[in-house]
Every structure is written in C-alpha cells, then in structure tokens.
C-alpha cells in the first residue's frame, strides 16, 4: 500500500475570542452558501466551530495544490460531505487529495492526505469526541440503549473487568470515534449497520497523550478483516479523543495533531472590507454563547 503525506491539524476554540476584523477576514474567505448555513446556528460556538472547519479545509487544499487561497472552491455531495472542486486549469495536475473535518466542544480537527492520481483511489475520515457523559441516565442504562451500535467483542472490551466507569466511558468514546471516522470516510452517514463493523483495539499501550497516536487498531466487517483500512487513535487533551480512518492509504509517518492559531488559517483580502461582510459579522457576534463546554 502506498504511503502518503498526511496532515493533522487541530484548533482549540477556547484559546480564541474572535475580534470583528478577524471575523471579517474569515467570513470573506468562505463561500456564500456556507455563510447562509452558518448564520442559521443559534450559538456563536457552533458558528465558529463550523467556520474554523471551513478555513482548515481551505488552508489544506491551498497548501497542497498551490491554488490561491481565495480561489479554492468546495461543494458537498448528496450526503453533505464536502469535497474540493478542482479548477479547470488544475485538472491536469496529478494531485489526489482527501480530507475530513470534525468538531466537538472546543476542538476542531482536520485530517488530510495527499497522493497522486496514479495511486489507487484513497480516502480519509476523522472524528473527535469529548470523553464525558452527562446524559442524566446512569452510564449502564446509556450503554444499554447503545447496545445495537457495537459488536459483542467491542462491548466486551468496553466492559473489561479492569475498567472502572471512567475507563469504560473512554473505551466507549474511542470506539465511537473509530466508527464515525470509518463512516465519515465512506460519507454514508448512519446508513451502515454499526454492529457489523467491529474494531479490535490496539492494546500495546493505554491511549494517553504521550503515546498518541496508537496505530494497531484493526477492523472486521461481517467477520472479514478489512486489510485496506488503517486507523490512528489520538488523545489530544485528557478529555478529547479522536480517530483517523485511512482507506487504501497509509501515512508516511504517524504523528500527533498540530495545534494551529487563527492567524495560520487566514489570508487577508480586501473582500473583508465589504459592507455586507461587515454587517454579517456584526450580526454573528451578537449570537449567544453556550454556558460552558
Ligand atoms: N460524511 C463525511 N463528512 C461529512 C459528512 C458526511 N456525510 N457531512 C458533513 N461532513 C463533514 C463536514 O465537514 C462537517 O462539518 P460542518 O458540519 O461544519 O459542515 C463535519 O464532517 C461534521 O463532522 P463531525 O463534527 O464529526 O459531526 P458529527 O459527528 O455530528 O456528524 C456525520 C457526522 C453527519 C457525518 C454522520 O456520521 C452522522 O450522521 N453521524 C450520526 C451519529 C451516529 O449515529 N454515529 C454512530 C457512531 S457509533
Ligand atoms: Mg463527530
């Protein structure tokens, strides 16, 4: 299997309070239909998570292809998965890209991979979860409701005798991220029978920040080993785990997510000074904050 350059970027929203000028530059960079979509969020937190995801995608494509930052165009497939629309003049380029964004709580992640069109078609999916449960019901009741989403082997790992409730929750979230990353690579939403896809965890080390990523996790579908798939599991902070699913590709090296700053994500443009962009951003900044993340 070919090895490719992999990008793993993270953004911590708790480290950033957007100013109006920053927001105008961010909003000027995204497409009109995305502005409309973002404005529908009630909370500023969701607005900003999704906005940062769009900027990560733009930076990734622009960095990999040298296409000017403001010219990069995205579209969504029928299930909502974003993809890069290659400009006519770049159609002859030999670059094949795959990327996926995930956001939860204070984190936004992008995992991307870059290869050649001569390679067999490949893809990547990612998911991040906060390791917490405050759903009201007891954890065992919650697990009972989730029974059908995991295989018997997965439940036996989650409920290992050495796992206290906290360890069970962490194991549950690790599986959840792996399934979501897999499903997001396929782009099929929740139409996969999740019980038929079963992950066997990498047990060489506990999943800790220092030991991240763990790369030995394997997948079986209907009992068949999925040898064309590879997985990385990350612990980004003590409370956030993530997974990356690689289909038909392997990263050149396994590495941690790199935390970026807002200034890394934008390229300034005169469009930020347009009155409609300014008015849009002023309106967005009036949205309420969630009480805590
Ligand atoms: N496939 C892959 N990526 C998609 C996508 C799709 N069909 N639709 C959107 N995305 C991308 C977008 O960049 C999106 O960001 P945006 O909302 O700001 O545009 C991002 O992925 C969202 O990912 P994430 O933040 O991880 O959201 P999610 O985990 O709530 O949703 C779905 C993921 C919508 C793609 C899908 O997997 C889903 O419906 N999940 C339902 C949950 C479930 O039952 N999971 C079972 C796991 S055990
Ligand atoms: Mg998710």
From TrEMBL:
Q: What InterPro entries does the record point to?
A: 4-PPantetheinyl_Trfase_dom (IPR008278), 4-PPantetheinyl_Trfase_dom_sf (IPR037143), AASDHPPT_N (IPR055066), P-Pant_transferase_sf (IPR050559)
GO molecular function per UniProt: holo-[acyl-carrier-protein] synthase activity; magnesium ion binding
Q: 4'-phosphopantetheinyl transferase N-terminal domain location, by residue?
A: 15-112
Q: What is its EC number?
A: 2.7.8.7
Which segments of the protein form a coiled coil according to its record?
Answer: none
UniProt record similarity statement: Belongs to the P-Pant transferase superfamily. AcpS family.
Protein name per its UniProtKB record: L-aminoadipate-semialdehyde dehydrogenase-phosphopantetheinyl transferase
Q: Which organism is it from?
A: Drosophila virilis (Fruit fly)
Taxonomic lineage: Eukaryota, Metazoa, Ecdysozoa, Arthropoda, Hexapoda
Name the gene behind this protein: Dvir\GJ12320
